[in-house]
Each structure stands twice: as C-alpha cells, then as structure tokens.
Specification:
Organism: Marmota marmota marmota (Alpine marmot)
Protein name: Bactericidal permeability-increasing protein
Keywords: Antibiotic, Antimicrobial, Disulfide bond, Glycoprotein, Immunity, Innate immunity, Secreted, Signal
Number of helices: 2
Subunit structure: Monomer. Homodimer; disulfide-linked.
Subcellular location: Secreted
Helix content: 25-40%
Order of helices and strands: HHEEEEE
Distance between the termini: 74 Å
Length: about 120
C-alpha cells in the first residue's frame, strides 16, 4: 500500500476547499468533503514536524526601542541577528470550527533563541 506524500494531501485539501467554495449558494455543490479526527491528527503531526524543520532556518527581524523605569529613567535596547536554536512543541491542536474552518493552537511550548543585544542607560 502506497502512502500519499504530505504535500499531495495538502494540495488535495486545498482543491477540495476551493471546489466547495465554488459551489456555495448552489443547491448541489458537486463535492462533499469530510475531515476526520484522524485526518486532523495527521495534519497536526505534519505541521509540527514542518515547524521543527523550518524554524531554525528563519532569521528574526531586528528590533529596538526604549522604555521608562520609574525613577531610574529611560532605557534603550537593541536586539539583532536573532536566530531560533530550538523549538519544542508540548501542546498543539487542530480542531474544526463548524461554518468557519479550522483552528490551530500552540500552548506551553519552549523556544530557545540567540543573537546579539545591547541595553543602554544614559545618566545625563
């Protein structure tokens, strides 16, 4: 038995979704799709594996700013060359929202990143 490649599954789901939308408002759309719990679990596992693979290759944008700390005064910060080193998924979930679509959620996960940063406090 041959197993479908993950991107084939995604393409088929997108085609089914677009063909179902094409038939909205018609009395007979011609296509009926059923997404099972097992299918959602498979999509969730594939999404988590993709996140683990792709996130380390992403470079986060640089950012800077300043804020005031009570009597201490203004503090400036600058973060640059940030890169994700590790991403651990503890809780992820895909669920159906009837009439709306699919909800994806991630919670209680662990992310490790590194980069360069600078914090300045002017005394005058």
């Amino acid at each position: 038995r041959m197993m479908a490649r993950p991107y084939h599954v995604v393409v088929v789901l997108l085609l089914l979704e677009s063909s179902v939308r094409f038939g909205e408002g018609a009395s007979n759309p011609g296509v009926v799709a059923r997404i099972t719990t097992k299918g959602l679990e498979y999509a969730n596992q594939y999404a988590v594996a993709t996140l683990r693979k792709e996130l380390p290759a992403i470079r986060l944008p640089d950012f800077s700013g300043n804020f005031k700390i009570g009597w201490f005064g203004r503090v400036s910060y600058n973060f640059h060359s940030l890169k994700i080193h590790r991403f651990e998924v503890r809780n992820s979930d895909l669920s159906l929202l009837p009439g709306l679509g699919i909800r994806a959620s991630l919670s209680n996960n662990d992310l490790s990143l590194g980069g360069n940063w600078k914090v300045k406090k002017g005394f005058m």
